[in-house]
Amino acid sequence: MLQRTKSNSRIRAALVSLLLIVAGMALVGCGPGVAVVQSKKSDDYSARLQRVLVARNLTSPLMTATHKNALMTLDEMRQAFNAKITGPGVSLDYIDLENAANKVETLTNAISAGHPVQVLELKTSAFETKSYVLGGYTIDATVFDVALKKIVWRTQVILNSFPSGRLRNGPFGARKSLQDDADDVADTLAAKLKADGLL
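The structure assignment produced for this chain is given below.
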């Protein structure tokens, strides 16, 4: 029990760093409405994705309920990622950190319970508003290796706002389907992960 507690403490400490990282890299194009920064993989990392816990961490304390309506949901992510982030030996599980009082602790407990090999976290690092609705936002995507207790890959995906991107709120800020956003993010991440040898 003591050994497990120590291991959880090391994972928790590493995850604090993971949750706070904001990568700054040069932009390259990636299709209509979406841009992606150049990805970066640890030079000494040769493993491919295996059992992956996908963590949705898209909300910000500065967002209103209307802003949150413009974020892709966990179900939309699951549908897109299961179809597009695939490969030999790859399995995906999911956790939504939106309503977690302590996100680091919640993620640490999920790792202890599910025993993933890697954690793919998607976290909003910046967003812009159009009047009272959400325009575009930037997602920091990181792959955290649980055994190594460090981030081994990262990139950013920028979902552009209207008119170069798409409207993300319905009438009066209501929720609408954002499956297109989830599909674009999954396509973008899959391409980068494959190019870097993780898929």
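Interim note for the steering committee: The chain has five helices and eight strands. The radius of gyration is 17 Å.
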